[in-house]
Amino acid sequence: MKPEEIEKILRSVKSGRLGVEKALERLRHLPYENLDFARIDHHRHLRQGMPEVIYSEGKKVDHVVKIAERILDKKGDIIATRAGQDIFSALRALDKRAKYNEHGRVVTILHRKRGMTKGTVLIVSGGTSDVPVAEEAHAILDVLGSRVDTLYDVGVAGIHRLLDNREAILKARVIIVVAGMDGALASVVGGLAAQPVIAVPASSGYGASFGGIAALLTMLNSCAAGVAVMNIDNGFGAACIAHKINMIGE
């Protein structure tokens, strides 16, 4: 439940338009609601400024739908990550406002779109194989209200592609760098930028990349100052911290 929803309830009680018992009924499931298979954190928007997110991978479709139903019932927004087409179809049947970022596998249902920030988060990817992780971050930033620019397929194998776009790097308030293989792109961007750089190792790469571990180790050992590192393929986490940094500048 969003702060404005609780404020609306309290004002209605104060004015006499809503009785105390009715107000208690609406607030009954704060801070969380037990569905046996899940405990939904309706209080998260009040604490953190964003709703509880449904991590869909490994969940039954009907469980995702039931969670979404309860969140929507409390006027919360829906963010479902790692969602396949089957989950999107089910959520679309639940609410026609559902939108799907197919590359990033993110489903959103928003009651009202937020205004965009003045500051920009730039998402940079090494290769096109890294785009799904980058697009997960893009979809989350859109929901949270951060303005986004993207610079895809500018990896170090053709570093002139990155250097030709230095203006975009200089304009951004925060930079997310997604790279697989050797993961060197984060250090290069970190060496060019004064802004915070959030590095996301991607699982793309041949055998000795070990599903992103090689990129993770490279990023953790970056010689560039101001580079922070997320877990492998965690575009969602990178978007959340990038948005928080971006909001400080607002």
Walk me through this protein's architecture.
This protein is α/β, with parallel strands linked by helices and 250 residues long. The chain has 2 domains: 3-109, no CATH class; 120-248, Rossmann fold. 41% of the residues lie in helices and 18% in strands. The chain is built from 11 helices and 11 strands. It has helices at 3-15, 20-27, 44-48, 61-73, 85-94, 131-144, 160-163, 166-171, 185-192, 213-220, 235-248, and strands at residues 32-34, 39-41, 54-55, 78-81, 99-101, 106-109, 120-125, 147-151, 174-179, 197-201, 227-229. The radius of gyration is 20 Å and the shape is elongated.
The SS-based structural class is alpha/beta
Shape, please? elongated
DSSP summary, beta strand count: 11
Total of DSSP H or I helical runs spanning 4+ residues: 11
Order of helices and strands: HHEEHEHEHEEEHEHHEHEHEH
Oligomer: single chain
End-to-end distance, in Å?
Answer: 24 Å
**Overall mean pLDDT score?**
90
Which band does the percent of strand residues land in? 15-25%
| CATH fold group of the largest domain | Rossmann fold
Helix content: 40-55%
CATH architecture of the largest domain: 3-Layer(aba) Sandwich
Strand order of the largest sheet: 8-7-9-10-11
Rg estimate, integer Å: 20 Å
List low-pLDDT spans. none
For the record, the CATH class of the largest domain is Alpha Beta
